[in-house]
Amino acid sequence: MASTASAASPDMPTLRLGILPVLDTLPLFVANDEGFFTEEGLSVELIPFNSALERDAALKGGSLDGYFGDLLNTILLNSSGEDLRIIATSYHTHPQHRMFALLASPKSGITSIQEAKNVPVAISIASIIEYLLEEIMTREGIASEDIKKLEMRMIPIRYQMLIGNSIKLALLPEPLASKAVVEGAIPIADDRKLDTTLTILAVKETHLTGNRTLLPRFLRAYSKSVTLINNNPLRFMDTIINKTRFPVSLKESFVMPTLPAPVPPSRADVARVVDWLLQRNLIPGQIPYEEIVWSGTKRE
User: For domain 100-190, is the CATH number 1.10.150.20?
Assistant: First the structure.
């Protein structure tokens, strides 16, 4: 797939990041387009992938220095032997903006979260989607034993089957959730009450220790980009449409979520996900925060 890179001289430090076509990657594109990375003396190459599976394969194959991903997947990768360290939060749940929504199909007859008990929800198992589903439903008073799951890993298929009434419930990300609502789906719950880290940026530890000035320069450029977007999100709507899977039909109505400053996820956020993975035997044991989030020092 075609990649985008900031213009740079040959001696500039290079950072190859694998990304996905989703809203929260916008600050990376804007930082490249506005020249913020170049101003900091960095060459940042954004390499797009259609799926997390393809991105993770490239990471394991050594063709990436880091990636845009989610907290849960990063912990799983580290548990399998990768040396990723989270450097910043890309998106944290916001009380005024939903990023993931639990939706009922137009003809399901379901209009409230209580009616979702024991009804299969289309998600991807052992992923951030499953984690969010359980967090959303349990916080709405649904007992764990009343949460039923239906494996449907491909988000576009999940969306089409929901709108076509082939399934009754699905968890979908924005902006697809908003598009589904326009087409008749019923929103019954979302992530606004969760107060947790969703997506992150992570870089291989060896890359961070190999150039100690890379990270502060990267974060300065990224922070400029976040501020620019939050101050005038409409200015970048064409970038969103061109670089992500954004439905053109929502251009005039969609409200861009507020993006967080590039700070590391909290210890509490990381601990919740680690505990969730442990309870499902998806990781062999506890993983210290410092082996997941970059502390500025190399692990011995």
Answer: no
- Split at pLDDT 50, 70, 90, the class of 299 is very low
- CATH superfamily label, 4-93+196-291: Periplasmic binding protein-like II (3.40.190.10)
Per residue in 246-262, is it b (16+ CB within 10 Å) or e — as a string?
Answer: beeebeeebebbebbeb
Going from N- to C-terminal start, the domains of the chain cover 4-93+196-291, 100-190
Report the alpha-carbon distance of residue 68 to residue 46 in Å, rounded. 10
pLDDT, one tens digit per residue, over 84-93 is 999 999 999 9
CA–CA gap between residue 102 and residue 150 (Å, rounded):
13
d(CA 196, CA 100): 12
Residue with tokens 């494996």: 151
Asked if residue 51 lies in contact with residue 153, where contact means CB atoms within 8 angstroms, the answer is no
Q: Is 109 left (phi over 0), alpha (psi -120 to 50) or beta?
A: left
What is the structure's pLDDT at 225?
98
Q: Is the Cβ–Cβ distance between 67 and 45 less than 8 Å?
A: no
Structure confidence by residue, pLDDT tens digits, 209-227:
988 889 999 999 999 999 9
